[in-house]
Structures are given as C-alpha cells and as structure tokens.
Amino acid sequence: MFSQRYFANYKTGGYKYMKTSRNQIKKTEACTFQAYREVYYIDIKEDYVYMLYPVRQNLSDKTSFSSAVDKHFLVGKILKNDENKVRDFLDLSRIKENLKDDNIIECKYQRLHKNGIGEWCLVSIIAQRRNEQEVESAIITIRSIDDVVRNEEKQNRKLEKVIEKSLKANQAKTVFLSSMSHDMRTPLNAIIGFSNMAQKNISDTAKVKMCLDKILQSGEHLLNLINDILDMSRIESGKNQINLRKCNIYERVYSVTEFIQAQTKAKNLNLSIQFENVINAMIYADDLKLNKVFINILSNAVKYTESGGTITYRIKERESDKKGYTIITFVIEDTGIGISEEFIEHIFEPFERERSSTQSGILGTGIGMTISKTLVDMMGGRIWAESQVGKGSKFYVEMEFKLFDIRETALDENIKTSVSNNLKGKKVLLVEDNELNMEIAEDMLKEAGIEVVCAKDGVEAVGIMERCNDYEYDGILMDVQMPVMNGYEATKRIRKLDRADLKVIPIIAMTANAFAEDRKIAKKNGMTDHISKPVDSVKLLKTLEKAFI
Ligand code: ADP
C-alpha cells in the first residue's frame, strides 16, 4: 500500500505532482514518524489493527481492535483518571459514529511513566477509506504534547493569577471608594459643623478659635487624603520619573524628622535618631521621593503608637560591591499596636487597611504604604516590614546610592572657602526652635568662621536684640514657624525697636517652602532675603555674603 505515493513538488510551485521513489517515501515516512510515539492502521470494517510504527507488524500478526485496545493502549499505560475516557474514545462503534462527519477525531490523556509521572499525549484517529455509508479504515497516531500542555498550563496559571489580582484590586478599589467617601465625609462634616458653631458664637473668641483649629485640622487631613490619591494616580500613569540630586544623608533624615517632630511632641512620643557607621554622607538620590517614603512610614509609626511610646529611626551604611556606590538601610521601629501576621502580607497592596477608620478611630487611606513601595521599587530599593501585635513594628528600606564624587566636593569646598573668607569674624543671631536644625546651621556657620549666638523663639530673639550693643550683630537668620512668637512677628518687632542699626540689619528667613509667595511675605514683614530648608551650606553662606555687602 505504500508503493504508489505522490508528493507535492514545492520547488516547482506546489501544484505539479511527481511520482516519488520508494527511497524518498521511506525517508519521508521516517521523518514524519519521528513526531509520533506510535502509529497504527485500523481496519474498521474487518475489525483488525496492526502497528506501523515503531515496529511494523506483519499483516499475519493482525489482532482484533478491541483486544489490541486493552493490550496496547490501556493496560498500565494510562493514568487511572483518564482510562475510561480513552476506552470510550477507542470504542469501535463510537469511532464509526464520530468519524461520520469529521475526518479527524482526537482525545487528550496522560500516559503513565515508570516514575509515576504522567506525560500528556494526544491520540488522533484519521479517516482513511470510506464507502458511501461509513468509514472503513483509519490511521491512529499517538504523539506527546507534554511540552505544549505544560506550557499552556503555565500560561493559564499566570493568567489566573493576573485575573485574581485584578479582581482583588477591583474589589479593593470598591471597598476603598466606599471607605473613602466615608473618610472624606468625616472631615468635611467637621468643617461644616465647626463653621456653623463658629458663626453662632461669633463673639466668643475662645470658642471661635477652637472651631478654627478644628477646621484647620480637618482641612489638612482632607488635603493629605487628596494628595495621596493624586500621588497614586500620578504613579499609576507612569508620569513619575526619578530625579537624582546631590544630597546629604544627614540633612535628608533631619528634614523629615523635623517635619514629624511636631506630631511626636503632640502625642508625647520619644523619637530617637541613630546613625550607625554612616561614613559617606554625600550621595545622589531622589530626595523628594525619599522624603515621601519616610514621611509615610514615620507618620504611620506616630499614628499607630500610643502616647508615651518610642519611635527609633536607625540609619546604617555598608559597603557595596559596586565601586563608587554605598548601601544604606533605614530602619523605623515603633512600640505601637503592631500588625497581624495575616495582614502584614498585604500591607503594601493598594487600599488595604487592617482596621477601618470607624473601627480604629485612626484616619487613613490605605495607600500610603503602596505609594512607598512603588517609590522604593522605582528607585531600585527594597522595602519590607516585621511586626508583633501589641509589641510594635519595624519597617526597613534598603537602597544602593551612588556616592558623590570627591572632586565635585572639592569644587564645593572651594566655593565655601572663598565665601567664608568674606564672612570670617562676622556675628550672627541664629533663631531656630528645632534643636537638630539649630545644630546643623550652627555647625555650617561656625565652619565659615562666623560667631553664632542662638535663640529658640521670636521672643528670645527680640530680647537679645534689645539688649545688644549698636551694630554688635551683622545679621539674623530667622526660622519662620516657631512656638511662642513666629519669625515674621519677631522681625516686625526688631525693626520697630528704636535703633538705627536694627532698621537695616539683614534678617534672612528660613522656611520649608521656597515658593515665590513666601519670599513676598518675608519681604513684606521686613526680612531681607529668604532661604529654603533643608539648608544647603553653600547657599546659606552665599546668601549671607550677599546680605553683608
Ligand atoms: P493608612 O492611611 O491606613 O495608614 P497605609 O498604607 O499607610 O494606610 O498603611 C496601611 C495599613 O497598614 C494601616 O491602615 C495599618 O493597618 C497598617 N500599618 C502601617 N504602618 C503601621 C505601623 N507602624 N503600626 C501598625 N500598623 C501599621
């Protein structure tokens, strides 16, 4: 039956047929069979079968199909679960029935290997000869499709995970939206309620002040909420890019802790900052993104730690394998309420909160940690958390930073030296309520040879100016936000003192905001210039130099 075969001659266009030699047929068959494990010829009409590949049986060896099925296909060769399916598929009357309308019928099953592992195989029955009513003979092929199926399974599992994740995110978004509307309504209700109360008690100054404080508080919370949502959507839209700038790691840490100190003081929490083995202070980093991450983690530590607790912020440096780089680990530990084992796995997922605001009375959105993780990922770092319920939590952020090149530092040092030559011997009053900031600024000024006297609020500053000799001081560096008396008020009072030198003495404002509006307000209040915090030493000295000319 294999002697008369015709093959398409693809070289000549595929439409012309040629007679092939027996040798060519053999070669082609050999190639084709390689793809198959077994190939059988089955005579449906006469009910016999013989094997064509791998061993071609003699026609005299032909066996009845049903007994061959038991012997060759089924016994010990098929995974138990698939046995009935394959038996049904290979039932002769069914084959006849199924091949009535189709030329090929197929069944997928798992073949059993000695090691007990199943291999995915495909048995195909291809109609070969038909009479008018039915199929008379067919070819049965068995081939391994294990790679294909396993790949498919892998893809399916991946797909399932993606679907599950997106379903979860969707669900979380729904929960978020409903809790968000609650979280937004709460401060809004407070704003409206306290505005009404203030209106009704307009002549009771103390009550009006209390209402305004509450309105301010709720307004700030609402703003935080909206900022978080905006941050999140900015990150999701991929618009957020990394902006590396030269940073001093000490300044970064102190500027964030300064921001958080008002909250720790108000809640009577101890905040301890510990630098361990930090040798390389100057690095390249995206300072705004770093700030955002640590403000999020520290604010949570404040939020979820009860009054009297402790927050410890440790900064450790270790060597990197990469030349010119360093690894810094930031650890923020609190003695707060802690996080359960089940929840900690989801802490970085969007909109997840262990307790709602209603349950805990603690306001939040459940996206602060997601934003932090996304930002840390963007910067190529790692963030993780450890916690014990009732004992406290520990958040870790580890990141590799490029070190600031020493030659660039030399350039800075040159500017510093040239500026400090003009500043040596000058006397400056430094007004700053925050001890850490005071220390940093004092160091910078002293390094330039400036004599520094410190005051911790506006009242103290005005007092020093009242008592000092005429022209004793060359300038004043004035923080703006301070308890007791703020920087604007203190400046106004100093300018009003009955002394010619104090009408012209340079007073330089130091504020956290560098907006044009702040500069205007500073000028309006009698200040000479304005520098933004965290204070950069070169900028500070240059501003003073300009003011002293
Ligand atoms: P939230 O705005 O709710 O604070 P976050 O994304 O910042 O949102 O944090 C998610 C959740 O993780 C919080 O609701 C809280 O349950 C838990 N969490 C985060 N930080 C701490 C911490 N320091 N101590 C205890 N629980 C925390």
Please outline what is shown here.
This protein has 549 residues and is an alpha/beta fold. It has helices at 22-34, 65-74, 83-89, 92-98, 146-200, 205-236, 249-266, 287-303, 341-344, 357-360, 368-378, 406-423, 435-447, 458-467, 487-496, 500-504, 516-524, 537-548; strands at residues 6-8, 17-19, 38-43, 48-53, 104-112, 118-130, 135-144, 245-248, 270-276, 282-285, 310-319, 325-334, 382-388, 392-403, 427-431, 451-455, 475-479, 507-511, 529-532. 46% of the residues lie in helices and 23% in strands.
Give the ligands present: adenosine-5'-diphosphate
Number of helices: 18
Content of β-strand:
15-25%
Query: Number of DSSP strands?
Result: 19
Overall average residue pLDDT: 84
Structural classification: alpha/beta
Overall morphology:
elongated
- Main beta sheet: 7 strands, mixed
Runs with pLDDT <50, length 5+? 1-18
Radius of gyration from the alpha-carbon trace, in angstroms: 40 Å
Share of residues in helices: 40-55%
| Distance between the first and last residues' Cα | 110 Å
